[in-house]
Amino acid sequence: xxxxxxxxxAFLPEPEKVIKFLLIAFxxxxxxxxxxxxxxxxxYERVPLAxxxxxxxxxxxxxxxxxxxxxxxxxxxxxxxxxxxAIDAVRFKQDFSKATTAGAERLAEMFIEKTDEIEVxxxxxxxxxxxxxxxxxxxxxxxxxxxxxxxxxxxVKEFLSIDLSSLxxxxxxxxxxxxxxxxxxxxxxxxxxSITSGFGPRIDPVHGTDGFHKGIDIAAAxxxxxxxxxxxxxxxxxxxxxxxxxxxxxHENGMETRYAHLSGTAVKPLQEVKAGEIIGYxxxxxxxxxxxxxxxxxxxxxxxxxxxxxx
Length: 311
What we know:
InterPro entries: Cell_wall_metabolism_enzyme, Dup_hybrid_motif, M23ase_b-sheet_dom. By secondary structure, this protein is α+β, with helices and mostly antiparallel strands.
């Protein structure tokens, strides 16, 4: 046994090399994994992952319940839809497929409480009618009634610390049923035109801060092929911070197109590509809340609205 131990030690590299090997073999892959999933994890923790159609369930429920509190002798109260979304983001663990109209209305009703009523004689002959008076209950009161833990309460309030208004209307920048008219450049996702976020000012969906969206987001399934919008040369292909896995392409006349949040690339830097050639695949890498293609067009180093090239 002693001999075997000495034999193994004889074949081991020097200590410095062992340390370097461990760093390369274990720590670097770990860091890359953290970077890969950091964006989606942050989004999952800070932003309710509800689609606009699901958000509408809560908006309609809040409005319906608010209307029931109004009468000729009281202006009633206004139930805010945002706490409803934040609460169910916690209750449903972000699975908003569980959201229902009836459930949202029951939750909205928990925010109102009858405190009094006014009796009035009306009609001829007079008839005594009662009109209830309501108050708006606090978020803490509702959370206590739901028997939320302190950790769950903090999570609800964390969701409410950002402006959830952007979830109602993602600002596509195009009318319903819009389809691109290809000319100078081609559409990067042939046959897929589901734009979920347009070009311009918006609330950052991950960090909840004011920002400017320098491109458009096109929803598509992970792995959907992405094509080059025009002939050009690949300027960059690989990981790029918040862009995740991305491809940048240089074109003539000072134009550059960018394709971000990919699951993988199909080209290499300095490679010549033709319009319509596959350059990568849709994913959700980097600062992303779900599978989609972030598509940018730069002219003279300045971001311009990609939609303008397809109208």
